[in-house]
Amino acid sequence: MTDAQETAAHLRTTTGGGPPDDVDVPSDGLPIPPIPLLEPREGIPPVVTDADALARVVAAFAAGTGPVAVDAERASGYRYGQRAYLVQLRREGAGSALIDPVGCPDLSALGEALTGTEWILHAATQDLPCLRDIGMVPTALFDTELAGRLAGFPRVGLGAMVENVLGYALEKGHSAVDWSTRPLPEPWLRYAALDVELLVDLRDALEKELDRQGKLEWARQEFEAIVAAPPAPPRKDPWRRTSGMHKVRRRRQMAVVRELWETRDRIAQRRDVSPGKVLGDAAIVEAALSLPSNVQALSALPGFGQRSSRRQLEQWMAAVDRARALPESELPQPGAAPSGPPPPRSWADKDPAAAARLAAARTAVSALAEQLKLPQENLLTPDTVRRLCWEPPFRVSPESVEEALAGYGARPWQIERVTAALVTALAATG
Fold this sequence. Notes:
- The chain is α/β, with parallel strands linked by helices and about 425 residues long.
- The protein is about 50% helix and about 10% strand.
- The chain folds into 3 domains: about 5-230, Nucleotidyltransferase, domain 5 (2-Layer Sandwich); about 240-330, DNA polymerase, domain 1 (Orthogonal Bundle); about 345-430, Orthogonal Bundle (DNA polymerase, domain 1).
């Protein structure tokens, strides 16, 4: 039995997870099959779409007790941006609620009513930006996905966690649907309500397991860091993240990518559709590499074919023409100077001593992570390890390494666990 299987078995026997008492348990030693979770215990709640219904939900959740389970559904791949199209909540004494942020775009009153209440989210960093946009910002949270990582579970999706920890099977067939659809079909609403049905139970079970493993304080520090993190700033030069950009090496070609990307983004935002539905990344790169001189040449490229109207082709051609007409001084540079160390693959040539430090530090962190039964990246981020090894303290000591790690954002529990091993790795490689 693996460590994760032992953890799951322990949770099922100590937290009430697994099948109810009136369900027959196999006596042949085979794994107990999960119980399908088909309906929310109070049924599918009505979707809140107006101010009066929202006020009732706010009052009910303000009067509830204990933590509140929160989830959000977006329309990634269908709509422009990452806005929420459904918000699900559940709290003891309030039951479950489904809120339509299209009809109720300002949920700040609900956010304020839950101030001081612990929010339970699964993969919190995915949902917090879209929740912040509608006025919902937690003051405390418990992330069940991150808790699962720290507890050593190899599969930390919500369905896998509910099954392994609580013994129930969630139907996950609607995770990638277009949540901007109105009205939302009943099967989708059932799926959405079930996503918060057992989050409180999962949180309680994971808290007990983390406490048993001596990792509960680690989790609390991680959760506090998520709450305290400021909103991510807008990405500089987002067009540089076009898929296939590594093929584009000449500055004039980069200008074509930039013009096409920005044109596509304006169109996608105006139409409120995913940019990929307007023009694919592969087509942008093809046009940049080919530098077509007219609409006929452009239409022959992959991605600009028969389904494109003459007007569409002309707007893409205009973007290419703008890039072709730019003076050399206005062409984009090959790339912004990296804010951190260079790619590790180049270290052996640029700084062999740094490469040796990195190899030793990676080995040390990996061994510690295995010993502590958690993913290496959760013990210490790879970026932090690289930065420390590229520019180590002038005098390597526990104090100087601790100071450097804290400056890179490592939490106290991480610093306490890794400092000695990193001091040894850095000292051994000079």
